[in-house]
Amino acid sequence: MAFAHDTHRAQAGATFAQRLADLRADLAERVAKYRLYRATVNELGQLNERELNDLGLSSADIAAVARAAAYGA
Known about the structure:
The two termini are 18 Å apart. The chain has helices at 16-45, 49-54, 62-71. Helix 1 runs antiparallel to helix 3. It contains 3 helices and no strands. It is an all-alpha fold. It has one domain. The protein is 63% helix and 0% strand.
């Protein structure tokens, strides 16, 4: 199993405050993406099979569609 980690190095000369601000911005972005994922899962989860079928989806597709909507994968 392969894992991909998105790690970036602080720019040379970046202050601690700047690195902390970057960390906070990264965390806020991750939280926003996760909230979008959960909202998409919840909304699609409320649809019945007929409604999902009208959209060209099945209940098994919900997680993948939500992942693509939130994370672009």
